[in-house]
Amino acid sequence: MKDVKIVIVGGGLAGLISSIHLARIGIKAYVIEKKMYPFHRVCGEYISNEVVPYLDDLGCYPHELRPSQINRFELTSVNGRSASMPLDLGGFGISRYAFDQYLYQKAQSLGVRFCTGNEVESIVYERNTFTVRTSQQEHEADIVIGAFGKRSRLDGYLKRGFFGRRSPYVGVKYHIRLSGFADDLIALHNFKNGYCGISQVEDGRINLCYLTHRDNVKNYGNIRDMETQVLYQNPFLQQIFSTATFLFEKPEVINEISFETKAPVAHHILMAGDAAGMITPLCGNGMALAIHGAKVLSEHVIRYVEDKTYDRDQLEQDYTRAWNSLFSRRLWAGRQIQRLFGGVWSSNLAVSLANTTPGVARYLMKKTHGEPFPISNGI
Questions:
Q1: What is the DSSP string of 9-67?
Q2: What CATH number corresponds to the domain at position 145?
Q3: What is the pTM of this model?
Q4: Domain assignment of residue 379, yes or no
Q5: So what's the pLDDT on residue 156?
Q6: Which of 3, 99, 126, 298 is deepest in the core (most CB within 10 A)?
Q7: How far apart are the C-alpha atoms of 5 and 226, rounded to whole Å?
Q8: CA 175, CA 188: separation in Å to the nearest integer?
């Protein structure tokens, strides 16, 4: 077994799950997270049940948090036509505020060390060793896992291709309370140049998270006016926004969300979660992909640590091949399906497909989801 120091940059789902998986077999990573737990993130907060066997095996399914159990889907078009169907696999709803905190405490109990409230400013690889610098500290590592999210300053520092190309997408998230909203339902409501997902998380709270084009915000000057002028054109959204109790003082917002293809390995850093690749939010599978991707990454890192003949080049090549094999087609399918959303004609077509040919709609859903997997799957 090699003596390997591992630093994980970013303590979101992928970073936390990786640290727990590695710690379960005695490999203790050091996690650097720029924020302090617990905190909110822009996220749809729905997790496909494909990850449940793995979370159970890992001891990380949050039974005590009582996540909502979701098995029905509703779709509405820009002008309010609707369709509904069962979800074959289903999923559960839990906030990132609660789940990330839960995983953070789980990782700590396993001996994982954290540095929170400290942002990584640079990662330099030289002579087979990484130097990870923050404003306060410097760490050397043999392996660095990049789990720093959708879009980070580090992407710019590393000169990753997608970072230099402007993305028009803006994500906005609220938590609300809404009388009469079914706890087993996830709804996707279209509006001009965007769509809004709504589903229940823990404690009766409801996640309302939407993706829009920056021109929508620019044309109306601010988010609130844009919502009343654009989102309200869908009668379902008008009803929700008009009757809901909003629980945040202001929404969580993230700009320039990129769905471009990313490399799973960059500058010898093993990327995880949204840093490796982001699926379009309408698929409702970003959290499951982050968890599954963390499993795959952890298994490759374990092999690197345990096998003295397995070198860095093999690790990087095998991880890239495995990641692309499992996820690249799903991300591509998500980008194609997103074309059916955010327009009057296209969203009406999507609703018509769901109503008249539900088998096609379910097939498209399946193209962006995986099968349940346990921890015992090999690499």
A1: E--SHHHHHHHHHHHHTT---EEEESS-SS---S---EEEGGGHHHHHHHT---GGG--
A2: 3.50.50.60
A3: 0.94
A4: no
A5: 87
A6: 298
A7: 48
A8: 16
